[in-house]
């Protein structure tokens, strides 16, 4: 079998220097080369914290990875020096954020910013490659875009430019944290199509972070469902959709709205994600779960097989 490009083993992150509170708990998953993998869950479940822990982009000194290992292309990212992790960030792992302006400098023309990514290459060849990618990303009038400043572009155009920027260093992995949440639905679909197609063509793996199960269903091959800092279900997308094991996954699926617009919280199951200070060792979904029994107060057992599993005492059909 293929070796994973990224592997998280029981990663936990805490916030707070004086009385640290664990916000994620033993999160483990693997992403294989060229694979489109999604982490899904409601707001506050720990998706971004998990993604940011990979690249050590968590706010310091308050956030700490308190346990676990993060392997990327056979190296443990936790053991790298600051200079080494910066090199990984600039070349092997790229990020796309919800707000494109997080990645772009507002006072530098777009062409110049894209050239900067390929500053070690010959300028002519770099320009040619960038323009080719911009076209592949569905952008026309490239000469105008080249000279334009970010504020002159629409949100959808900027996110396409960010996809190009992320792909230019030929990374093995792109982490895309809610890349289309700020866009309207039609543009969202166009941007997701481009991300998927260009990543596929360059055999780049994608870690998509989203609260939108509709996007997962449409684009990802495998999904990890997060709830209250833990991974509660993992599996191939079609299996998870056809036969979800965890009641929380069922709730998320029931909340897929018409037109895949996505939701911030699930309305089909009452209640909210608990605050990390109220996290319990037993099942954290207990107070919202229609199948709760006192046995759920212990850490829920893993059930299923290596491909598709969930942490819940309830036996699936
Ligand atoms: N800078 C911070 N300081 C303290 N707690 C934080 C900080 N950033 C995140 N958290 C906490 O960590 C938990 C997980 O947050 P995270 O941002 O990973 O959620 P998320 O799943 O990405 O949600 P969203 O869909 O809203 O982006 C939350 O309870 C949040 O309050
Ligand atoms: S362990 Fe119990 S409370 Fe938790 S999801 Fe399963 S049935 Fe519900
Ligand atoms: Mg987030």
How would you characterize this protein structure?
By secondary structure, the chain is an alpha/beta fold. It is built from ten helices and twelve strands. Residues 246-247, 283, 285-286, 289, 291-292, 296, 300, 312-314 line the site of iron/sulfur cluster.
Give a short synopsis of this structure.
This protein is α/β, with parallel strands linked by helices. The chain contains 10 helices and 12 strands. Helix content is 31%, strand content 23%.
Helices and strands in order:
Blueprint: E1 6-15, E2 21-31, E3 36-40, H1 47-54, E4 63-72, E5 75-76, H2 82-91, E6 93-96, H3 110-117, H4 123-136, H5 142-147, H6 155-167, E7 173-177, H7 185-201, E8 205-210, H8 213-219, E9 222-227, E10 230-236, H9 237-242, H10 247-254, E11 302-304, E12 309-311
Parallel strand pairs: 3-8, 3-9, 6-7, 7-8
Antiparallel strand pairs: 1-2, 1-4, 4-5, 9-10, 10-12, 11-12
């Amino acid at each position: 079998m293929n070796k994973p490009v990224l592997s998280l083993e029981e990663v936990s992150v805490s916030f707070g220097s004086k009385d640290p509170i664990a916000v994620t708990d033993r999160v483990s998953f693997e992403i294989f080369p060229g694979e489109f993998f999604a982490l899904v869950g409601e707001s506050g479940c720990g998706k971004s914290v998990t993604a940011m822990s990979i690249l050590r982009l968590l706010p310091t000194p308050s956030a700490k990875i308190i346990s676990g290992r993060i392997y990327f292309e056979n190296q443990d990212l936790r053991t790298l020096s600051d200079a080494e992790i910066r090199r990984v960030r600039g070349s092997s792992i790229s990020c796309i954020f919800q707000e494109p302006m997080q990645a772009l400098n507002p006072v530098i023309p777009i062409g110049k910013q894209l050239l900067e990514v390929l500053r070690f290459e010959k300028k002519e060849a770099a320009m040619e490659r960038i323009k080719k990618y911009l076209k592949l990303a569905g952008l026309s009038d490239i000469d105008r875009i080249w000279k334009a400043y970010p504020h002159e572009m629409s949100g959808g155009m900027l996110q396409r430019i960010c996809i190009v920027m992320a792909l230019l260093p030929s990374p093995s992995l792109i982490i895309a944290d809610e890349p289309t949440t700020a866009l309207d639905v039609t543009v969202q679909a166009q941007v997701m199509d481009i991300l998927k197609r260009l990543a596929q063509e360059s055999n780049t793996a994608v870690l998509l972070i989203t609260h939108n199960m509709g996007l997962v269903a449409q684009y990802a091959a495998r999904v990890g469902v997060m709830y209250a800092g833990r991974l509660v279900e993992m599996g191939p997308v079609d299996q998870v959709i056809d036969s979800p094991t965890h009641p929380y996954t069922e709730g998320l699926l029931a909340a897929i709205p018409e037109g895949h617009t996505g939701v911030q919280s699930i309305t089909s199951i009452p209640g909210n994600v608990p605050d990390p200070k109220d996290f319990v060792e037993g099942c954290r979904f207990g107070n919202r779960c229609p199948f709760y029994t006192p046995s759920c107060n212990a850490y829920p057992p893993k059930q299923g097989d290596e491909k598709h599993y969930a942490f819940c005492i309830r036996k699936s059909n």
